[in-house]
Amino acid sequence: MISTREKVTNSLNVIWSIAQKDIVDALKNKGTLINIILMMGMVVFFYWISTVRPWDKSIEVIVYDEGNSGLFEGTIELSDSYEIRHIEVSSLGQMKRNMRHEHWGLIVPVDFEQILASGSETTLTGHILWAWRGKVAELETLYSAKFSELLGQPVQVEIGENIIVPSPDIDTTDVNQHILFVTLFVAITLIPALMQEEKLTKTMDALLVSPASIGQVVMGKALAGLFYVVLTGGLFFTLNWMYITNWWLALLAFLLCAMFSIGLALAVSSLLHTPQQLALWLAPLMILLIVPTALAGFSNLAPSLKVIFAWIPTTALVEVFQFAMSSHAPVDRLLFDLAIALGWTGLSFAAVVWKVRRSDR
Q1: In the predicted model, is pLDDT for residue 220 greater than 80?
Q2: N- or C-end of the chain: fewer Cβ atoms within 10 A?
Q3: Global pTM value
Q4: Of 359, 353, 360, which is closest to residue 266 (Cα–Cα)?
Q5: Extents of the domains making up the chain
Protein backbone atom coordinates (compact mmCIF):
# COMPACT_ATOMS: atom_id res chain seq x y z
CA MET A 1 0.00 0.00 0.00
CA ILE A 2 1.38 3.39 -1.04
CA SER A 3 1.83 5.80 1.87
CA THR A 4 0.63 9.41 1.81
CA ARG A 5 4.22 10.62 1.63
CA GLU A 6 4.90 8.49 -1.46
CA LYS A 7 1.72 9.76 -3.11
CA VAL A 8 2.78 13.37 -2.52
CA THR A 9 6.30 12.64 -3.81
CA ASN A 10 4.95 10.94 -6.93
CA SER A 11 2.56 13.81 -7.55
CA LEU A 12 5.34 16.39 -7.21
CA ASN A 13 7.53 14.36 -9.60
CA VAL A 14 4.75 14.34 -12.20
CA ILE A 15 4.21 18.10 -11.80
CA TRP A 16 7.95 18.76 -12.13
CA SER A 17 8.22 16.51 -15.20
CA ILE A 18 5.46 18.45 -16.95
CA ALA A 19 6.99 21.80 -15.97
CA GLN A 20 10.50 20.72 -16.95
CA LYS A 21 9.36 19.61 -20.40
CA ASP A 22 7.54 22.91 -20.98
CA ILE A 23 10.55 24.95 -19.87
CA VAL A 24 13.00 23.02 -22.09
CA ASP A 25 10.65 23.12 -25.09
CA ALA A 26 10.11 26.85 -24.67
CA LEU A 27 13.82 27.61 -24.41
CA LYS A 28 14.34 25.78 -27.70
CA ASN A 29 11.80 28.09 -29.32
CA LYS A 30 13.43 31.19 -30.83
CA GLY A 31 10.21 33.18 -30.57
CA THR A 32 9.97 32.50 -26.84
CA LEU A 33 13.61 33.42 -26.26
CA ILE A 34 13.12 36.69 -28.12
CA ASN A 35 10.05 37.46 -26.00
CA ILE A 36 11.95 36.75 -22.78
CA ILE A 37 14.80 39.05 -23.87
CA LEU A 38 12.28 41.77 -24.77
CA MET A 39 10.59 41.43 -21.38
CA MET A 40 13.90 41.75 -19.56
CA GLY A 41 14.67 44.78 -21.70
CA MET A 42 11.34 46.22 -20.57
CA VAL A 43 12.38 45.75 -16.93
CA VAL A 44 15.61 47.67 -17.58
CA PHE A 45 13.62 50.41 -19.35
CA PHE A 46 11.23 50.82 -16.43
CA TYR A 47 14.22 51.05 -14.08
CA TRP A 48 15.80 53.65 -16.34
CA ILE A 49 12.73 55.92 -16.32
CA SER A 50 12.25 55.49 -12.55
CA THR A 51 15.61 56.86 -11.50
CA VAL A 52 17.83 59.85 -12.20
CA ARG A 53 19.96 59.42 -15.30
CA PRO A 54 23.65 60.45 -15.14
CA TRP A 55 23.11 63.22 -17.68
CA ASP A 56 20.00 64.70 -16.01
CA LYS A 57 20.74 68.27 -14.94
CA SER A 58 17.45 69.12 -13.30
CA ILE A 59 17.22 69.34 -9.49
CA GLU A 60 13.70 69.47 -8.09
CA VAL A 61 13.54 70.58 -4.47
CA ILE A 62 10.56 70.86 -2.12
CA VAL A 63 11.28 73.98 -0.05
CA TYR A 64 9.92 74.76 3.41
CA ASP A 65 11.01 78.37 3.96
CA GLU A 66 10.37 79.02 7.67
CA GLY A 67 11.10 82.74 7.34
CA ASN A 68 9.49 83.32 3.94
CA SER A 69 12.74 84.75 2.63
CA GLY A 70 11.61 84.48 -0.99
CA LEU A 71 15.09 83.40 -2.06
CA PHE A 72 13.95 80.00 -3.29
CA GLU A 73 11.23 80.50 -5.87
CA GLY A 74 10.57 79.32 -9.40
CA THR A 75 13.11 77.71 -11.70
CA ILE A 76 16.70 78.95 -11.91
CA GLU A 77 19.31 77.83 -14.46
CA LEU A 78 22.95 77.70 -13.38
CA SER A 79 26.07 78.28 -15.47
CA ASP A 80 26.69 74.59 -16.23
CA SER A 81 23.15 74.07 -17.57
CA TYR A 82 21.97 72.66 -14.26
CA GLU A 83 18.41 73.72 -13.49
CA ILE A 84 17.00 74.05 -9.97
CA ARG A 85 13.23 73.95 -9.69
CA HIS A 86 11.83 75.13 -6.36
CA ILE A 87 8.44 73.87 -5.15
CA GLU A 88 7.38 75.84 -2.07
CA VAL A 89 5.27 74.36 0.73
CA SER A 90 3.96 75.81 4.00
CA SER A 91 5.01 73.16 6.53
CA LEU A 92 7.50 70.39 7.24
CA GLY A 93 4.74 67.79 7.06
CA GLN A 94 3.66 69.04 3.63
CA MET A 95 7.27 68.94 2.47
CA LYS A 96 7.56 65.27 3.46
CA ARG A 97 4.23 64.41 1.83
CA ASN A 98 5.14 66.14 -1.45
CA MET A 99 8.52 64.45 -1.83
CA ARG A 100 8.79 61.84 -4.55
CA HIS A 101 11.88 59.93 -5.56
CA GLU A 102 12.89 62.61 -8.08
CA HIS A 103 12.61 65.34 -5.39
CA TRP A 104 14.50 66.20 -2.24
CA GLY A 105 13.43 68.40 0.67
CA LEU A 106 15.05 71.60 1.94
CA ILE A 107 14.37 73.51 5.16
CA VAL A 108 15.33 77.20 5.16
CA PRO A 109 15.69 78.57 8.74
CA VAL A 110 13.92 81.72 9.92
CA ASP A 111 17.15 83.74 10.25
CA PHE A 112 18.60 82.57 6.94
CA GLU A 113 18.71 86.07 5.37
CA GLN A 114 20.62 87.48 8.35
CA ILE A 115 23.13 84.63 8.30
CA LEU A 116 23.55 85.09 4.55
CA ALA A 117 24.06 88.84 4.94
CA SER A 118 26.85 88.26 7.46
CA GLY A 119 28.91 86.62 4.69
CA SER A 120 29.70 83.51 6.69
CA GLU A 121 29.08 80.00 5.46
CA THR A 122 25.53 78.95 6.23
CA THR A 123 23.96 75.54 6.62
CA LEU A 124 20.71 74.29 5.13
CA THR A 125 18.99 71.09 6.23
CA GLY A 126 18.15 68.62 3.49
CA HIS A 127 15.88 65.57 3.45
CA ILE A 128 15.91 62.64 1.03
CA LEU A 129 13.75 59.56 0.63
CA TRP A 130 14.68 56.05 1.72
CA ALA A 131 15.68 54.92 -1.78
CA TRP A 132 18.67 57.31 -1.87
CA ARG A 133 19.98 56.52 1.64
CA GLY A 134 23.22 55.17 0.17
CA LYS A 135 24.00 58.45 -1.62
CA VAL A 136 23.93 60.89 1.30
CA ALA A 137 27.55 62.06 0.95
CA GLU A 138 27.29 62.33 -2.84
CA LEU A 139 24.07 64.34 -2.69
CA GLU A 140 25.36 66.63 0.07
CA THR A 141 28.36 67.50 -2.10
CA LEU A 142 26.22 68.08 -5.21
CA TYR A 143 23.55 70.18 -3.51
CA SER A 144 26.09 72.23 -1.53
CA ALA A 145 27.94 73.13 -4.73
CA LYS A 146 24.78 74.05 -6.64
CA PHE A 147 23.25 76.16 -3.87
CA SER A 148 26.56 77.91 -3.25
CA GLU A 149 26.53 78.93 -6.91
CA LEU A 150 22.86 79.87 -6.72
CA LEU A 151 23.32 82.16 -3.68
CA GLY A 152 26.76 83.46 -4.60
CA GLN A 153 28.50 82.40 -1.36
CA PRO A 154 29.40 79.19 0.49
CA VAL A 155 26.41 77.09 1.51
CA GLN A 156 26.59 73.68 3.18
CA VAL A 157 23.65 71.32 2.68
CA GLU A 158 23.51 68.71 5.43
CA ILE A 159 21.31 65.63 5.04
CA GLY A 160 22.80 63.34 7.68
CA GLU A 161 20.13 61.09 9.17
CA ASN A 162 17.20 62.95 7.58
CA ILE A 163 16.03 59.89 5.65
CA ILE A 164 12.27 59.82 5.08
CA VAL A 165 10.56 56.45 4.79
CA PRO A 166 7.38 56.98 2.72
CA SER A 167 4.00 56.66 4.42
CA PRO A 168 1.78 53.84 3.10
CA ASP A 169 -0.82 56.30 1.81
CA ILE A 170 1.62 58.29 -0.35
CA ASP A 171 2.78 57.18 -3.80
CA THR A 172 6.40 58.33 -3.99
CA THR A 173 7.31 56.15 -6.97
CA ASP A 174 5.75 54.15 -9.83
CA VAL A 175 7.97 51.12 -9.18
CA ASN A 176 5.07 49.16 -7.65
CA GLN A 177 3.00 49.64 -10.82
CA HIS A 178 5.96 48.76 -13.04
CA ILE A 179 6.54 45.36 -11.43
CA LEU A 180 2.84 44.51 -11.68
CA PHE A 181 2.76 45.47 -15.37
CA VAL A 182 5.91 43.52 -16.21
CA THR A 183 4.81 40.39 -14.33
CA LEU A 184 1.33 40.46 -15.82
CA PHE A 185 2.62 41.19 -19.32
CA VAL A 186 5.18 38.37 -19.20
CA ALA A 187 2.57 35.84 -18.10
CA ILE A 188 -0.23 36.98 -20.37
CA THR A 189 1.92 37.04 -23.51
CA LEU A 190 4.21 34.03 -23.03
CA ILE A 191 1.98 31.40 -21.39
CA PRO A 192 -1.01 31.57 -23.78
CA ALA A 193 1.39 31.46 -26.75
CA LEU A 194 2.99 28.29 -25.36
CA MET A 195 -0.42 26.76 -24.72
CA GLN A 196 -1.54 27.59 -28.27
CA GLU A 197 1.52 25.78 -29.60
CA GLU A 198 0.70 22.73 -27.47
CA LYS A 199 -2.81 22.67 -28.90
CA LEU A 200 -1.42 22.73 -32.43
CA THR A 201 1.09 19.95 -31.73
CA LYS A 202 -1.55 17.91 -29.79
CA THR A 203 0.79 17.77 -26.75
CA MET A 204 -2.07 18.79 -24.46
CA ASP A 205 -4.22 15.93 -25.73
CA ALA A 206 -1.44 13.49 -24.90
CA LEU A 207 -1.17 14.89 -21.37
CA LEU A 208 -4.91 14.57 -20.79
CA VAL A 209 -4.89 10.85 -21.62
CA SER A 210 -1.75 10.22 -19.57
CA PRO A 211 -1.83 9.00 -15.94
CA ALA A 212 -1.33 12.62 -14.81
CA SER A 213 -4.39 14.14 -13.17
CA ILE A 214 -5.89 17.40 -14.40
CA GLY A 215 -4.68 19.14 -11.25
CA GLN A 216 -1.12 17.92 -11.89
CA VAL A 217 -1.27 19.13 -15.49
CA VAL A 218 -2.46 22.59 -14.41
CA MET A 219 0.16 22.84 -11.64
CA GLY A 220 2.89 21.73 -14.04
CA LYS A 221 1.89 24.47 -16.47
CA ALA A 222 1.78 26.99 -13.64
CA LEU A 223 5.27 25.99 -12.46
CA ALA A 224 6.63 26.43 -15.98
CA GLY A 225 5.02 29.86 -16.16
CA LEU A 226 6.53 30.76 -12.81
CA PHE A 227 9.99 30.08 -14.25
CA TYR A 228 9.59 32.87 -16.83
CA VAL A 229 8.00 35.28 -14.39
CA VAL A 230 10.79 34.75 -11.84
CA LEU A 231 13.42 35.51 -14.52
CA THR A 232 12.05 39.01 -15.08
CA GLY A 233 10.99 39.47 -11.45
CA GLY A 234 14.45 38.60 -10.20
CA LEU A 235 15.98 41.19 -12.50
CA PHE A 236 13.42 43.74 -11.34
CA PHE A 237 14.25 43.20 -7.65
CA THR A 238 17.97 43.33 -8.41
CA LEU A 239 17.62 46.73 -10.06
CA ASN A 240 15.09 48.24 -7.64
CA TRP A 241 16.23 46.83 -4.30
CA MET A 242 16.78 50.31 -2.83
CA TYR A 243 13.04 51.09 -2.77
CA ILE A 244 12.08 48.13 -0.58
CA THR A 245 11.61 48.59 3.17
CA ASN A 246 10.00 45.20 3.94
CA TRP A 247 11.52 42.32 1.95
CA TRP A 248 9.17 39.64 3.30
CA LEU A 249 6.14 41.62 2.20
CA ALA A 250 7.74 42.47 -1.15
CA LEU A 251 8.45 38.79 -1.89
CA LEU A 252 4.93 37.80 -0.80
CA ALA A 253 3.47 40.50 -3.06
CA PHE A 254 5.57 39.24 -5.96
CA LEU A 255 4.53 35.63 -5.38
CA LEU A 256 0.86 36.60 -5.29
CA CYS A 257 1.30 38.77 -8.38
CA ALA A 258 3.03 35.92 -10.20
CA MET A 259 0.40 33.33 -9.26
CA PHE A 260 -2.51 35.60 -10.19
CA SER A 261 -0.87 36.48 -13.52
CA ILE A 262 -0.15 32.81 -14.28
CA GLY A 263 -3.66 31.71 -13.29
CA LEU A 264 -5.16 34.43 -15.47
CA ALA A 265 -2.87 33.53 -18.38
CA LEU A 266 -3.80 29.84 -18.14
CA ALA A 267 -7.49 30.74 -17.96
CA VAL A 268 -7.21 32.96 -21.03
CA SER A 269 -5.31 30.30 -22.98
CA SER A 270 -7.88 27.64 -22.08
CA LEU A 271 -10.79 29.81 -23.22
CA LEU A 272 -9.28 31.22 -26.43
CA HIS A 273 -8.59 28.82 -29.26
CA THR A 274 -6.56 30.76 -31.84
CA PRO A 275 -3.67 33.28 -31.84
CA GLN A 276 -6.03 35.77 -33.51
CA GLN A 277 -8.47 35.58 -30.60
CA LEU A 278 -5.58 36.02 -28.18
CA ALA A 279 -4.30 39.12 -29.98
CA LEU A 280 -7.82 40.58 -30.07
CA TRP A 281 -8.45 40.21 -26.33
CA LEU A 282 -4.96 40.95 -24.98
CA ALA A 283 -5.07 44.76 -25.20
CA PRO A 284 -8.57 45.22 -23.65
CA LEU A 285 -7.67 42.80 -20.85
CA MET A 286 -4.45 44.62 -20.01
CA ILE A 287 -6.23 47.99 -20.06
CA LEU A 288 -8.98 46.68 -17.77
CA LEU A 289 -6.40 45.43 -15.25
CA ILE A 290 -3.77 48.20 -15.46
CA VAL A 291 -5.73 51.47 -15.82
CA PRO A 292 -7.55 51.15 -12.44
CA THR A 293 -4.20 50.78 -10.65
CA ALA A 294 -3.18 54.22 -11.94
CA LEU A 295 -6.54 55.88 -11.23
CA ALA A 296 -7.05 54.39 -7.75
CA GLY A 297 -4.49 56.75 -6.21
CA PHE A 298 -6.22 59.94 -7.43
CA SER A 299 -7.53 61.96 -4.49
CA ASN A 300 -10.45 63.37 -6.51
CA LEU A 301 -11.65 59.97 -7.73
CA ALA A 302 -15.36 59.36 -7.14
CA PRO A 303 -15.93 57.30 -3.94
CA SER A 304 -18.00 54.74 -5.86
CA LEU A 305 -15.12 54.13 -8.26
CA LYS A 306 -12.69 53.80 -5.35
CA VAL A 307 -14.87 51.02 -3.93
CA ILE A 308 -15.05 49.26 -7.31
CA PHE A 309 -11.32 49.57 -7.97
CA ALA A 310 -10.52 48.21 -4.49
CA TRP A 311 -12.03 44.87 -5.55
CA ILE A 312 -9.85 44.57 -8.65
CA PRO A 313 -6.92 42.20 -7.96
CA THR A 314 -4.29 44.31 -9.72
CA THR A 315 -5.22 47.35 -7.62
CA ALA A 316 -4.87 45.26 -4.46
CA LEU A 317 -1.49 43.90 -5.57
CA VAL A 318 -0.13 47.37 -6.37
CA GLU A 319 -1.11 48.51 -2.88
CA VAL A 320 0.62 45.53 -1.25
CA PHE A 321 3.78 46.38 -3.22
CA GLN A 322 3.40 49.98 -2.03
CA PHE A 323 3.22 48.81 1.59
CA ALA A 324 6.46 46.87 1.01
CA MET A 325 8.08 50.19 0.04
CA SER A 326 6.59 52.19 2.93
CA SER A 327 7.14 52.80 6.63
CA HIS A 328 4.50 50.23 7.61
CA ALA A 329 1.50 48.28 6.32
CA PRO A 330 -1.96 49.07 7.77
CA VAL A 331 -3.17 45.64 8.92
CA ASP A 332 -6.81 46.07 7.85
CA ARG A 333 -5.95 47.23 4.33
CA LEU A 334 -3.19 44.63 3.97
CA LEU A 335 -5.47 41.75 4.94
CA PHE A 336 -8.19 43.01 2.58
CA ASP A 337 -5.74 43.29 -0.33
CA LEU A 338 -4.30 39.84 0.35
CA ALA A 339 -7.80 38.35 0.47
CA ILE A 340 -8.72 39.99 -2.86
CA ALA A 341 -5.51 38.75 -4.53
CA LEU A 342 -5.88 35.21 -3.17
CA GLY A 343 -9.57 35.07 -4.05
CA TRP A 344 -9.09 36.08 -7.69
CA THR A 345 -6.07 33.78 -8.02
CA GLY A 346 -8.14 30.85 -6.74
CA LEU A 347 -10.96 31.69 -9.15
CA SER A 348 -8.51 31.82 -12.08
CA PHE A 349 -7.08 28.38 -11.36
CA ALA A 350 -10.57 26.97 -10.69
CA ALA A 351 -11.65 28.22 -14.12
CA VAL A 352 -8.64 26.50 -15.71
CA VAL A 353 -9.38 23.17 -14.01
CA TRP A 354 -13.07 23.42 -14.99
CA LYS A 355 -12.23 24.16 -18.63
CA VAL A 356 -9.63 21.36 -18.84
CA ARG A 357 -12.10 18.88 -17.32
CA ARG A 358 -14.67 19.82 -19.97
CA SER A 359 -12.16 19.41 -22.78
CA ASP A 360 -11.16 16.01 -21.39
CA ARG A 361 -14.66 14.63 -21.79
Answers
A1: no
A2: N
A3: 0.84
A4: 353
A5: 4-50+173-359, 58-100+102-164
